[in-house]
Amino acid sequence: MTDYQAYEKAMRPEDLTRFFVERSNAGDAAGVAALYEEDAVMAYPPGSLTVGREAIRELWAAVLAHRPTFEPEPPLPTLVSDGIALTSTPPADGTGARAQVVRRQPDGSWLRLLDQPEFAAPTA
After folding, report:
1. Partners of residue 89 on adjacent β-strands
2. What 8-state DSSP symbol labels residue 7?
3. pTM score > 0.85 for this model?
4. Which residues neighbour 18 within 8 Å (Cβ) at sequence distance 6 or greater?
5. Which among 20, 40, 36, 39 has a CA at the least distance from the CA of 28?
6. Dihedral pair phi/psi, residue 20, rounded to 5°
7. How far apart are CA 23 and CA 44, in angstroms?
8. Tell me, what's the pLDDT at 94?
9. DSSP letter assigned to residue 119
10. Peptide bond preceding 122: is omega within 30 degrees of 0, i.e. cis?
11. pLDDT digits (tens, 9 = 90+) for 21-68
12. What is the pLDDT of residue 124?
């Protein structure tokens, strides 16, 4: 079993996106999964859900095997209320958006609870 506690923790909600880019570009699927709560839900691949940290790790292991490169994207302002935050970024190509609901953990760090990594405006 992976020791997710061994990874550096996000002490601000915005750290999660930076860690995602760094760990993805390093090919570290377990490091990406460490950014999620145990029962997190991710809306990926498009049209389906991936539920749970282990399923997220397996998904990212398959994606990262193709060695994609991720570039940092400037975030929109983070919204925070009572230990819950909404982080989001507009993709560099100008299509759709990315959004995550993150939650403060008992140790003060932040983890992703819900992740919508890509979505586009509905078409008529």
Report:
1. 98
2. S
3. yes
4. 72
5. 20
6. -60, -50
7. 18
8. 75
9. E
10. no
11. 999 999 999 999 999 999 999 999 888 999 999 999 999 999 999 999
12. 56
Provide the CB-side half-sphere exposure for 70 (13 A, CA). 22
What is the distance between the alpha carbons of residues 104 and 97, in angstroms, rounded to a whole number? 23
| Residue in the block written with tokens 């709560």 | 37
Task: Yes or no: say if 32 and 20 are a contact pair by the CB < 8 Å rule.
Answer: yes
| R_g over Cα of the chain | 14
Phi-psi region of 16 (alpha: psi -120 to 50; beta: other; left: phi over 0): alpha
Could you list the beta-strand ranges (E) of the chain.
36-42, 50-51, 79-81, 84-89, 97-104, 110-119
Distance CA 26, CA 119 (A): 25
**Alpha-carbon torsion (89, 59, 44, 85), positive or negative:** negative
